Amino acid sequence: MNRMPGRLGTLVARDVMSTEVLVLPEETTLVDAVEMLKEHKHSGAPVVNSRGHLVGTFSLRNLTGVKRNQTGGENQKEVSGVESGIISAAALEKLMKTSAAQERVVDRMTENAPSVTENATLIDVARLMCDFHTHRIPVTNSRSVLTGIITTMDILAALVHTADELTE
């Protein structure tokens, strides 16, 4: 566990996470997931099972064609028109007309995605974001139940607020 000096070093995931989280039940269809993400202006969300346990993450990038499985192999499935986590209206319309429309997020999600517990230090969360090139880290309790999410904006806000406190 890494610590930073001062107040910034005392912050843990619980202190900066958002508790209102858009979650995708694992049985959600791709079309419904994309609609939910667009409606909330998100590019991705945690995927949970019926007990609320985190089972993976799904982002619009998961529509770009490659799903990595637990053994490191890949399954090729492609929806063109999705780049850098943004889906065009034409790509969404095309998706709705394909057999992929009824695939479930569990079929395309990133399994074993990084997550942290509520007591993870802010620096450990930031390090995970850098290591996995992700903009969101789900937060779970000791029973692996999703309790929140931390985004890059949450990390930046904590940094700015801490810096502001030092200048006051």
Would you summarize the structure shown here?
With 168 residues, the protein is α/β, with parallel strands linked by helices. 32% of the residues lie in helices and 21% in strands. The strands form 4 sheets. The chain has a 3-stranded mixed beta sheet.
Can you give a write-up of this model?
This protein is α/β, with parallel strands linked by helices and 168 residues long. It has one domain (7-167): CBS-domain (Roll), CATH 3.10.580. The protein is 32% helix and 21% strand. It is built from 6 helices and 10 strands; from the N terminus they run αβαββββββααβαββα. A hairpin with a 5-residue loop joins β4 and β5 (74-76). It is elongated and about 55 Å long. The two termini are 29 Å apart. Residues 66-85 have low confidence and may be disordered.
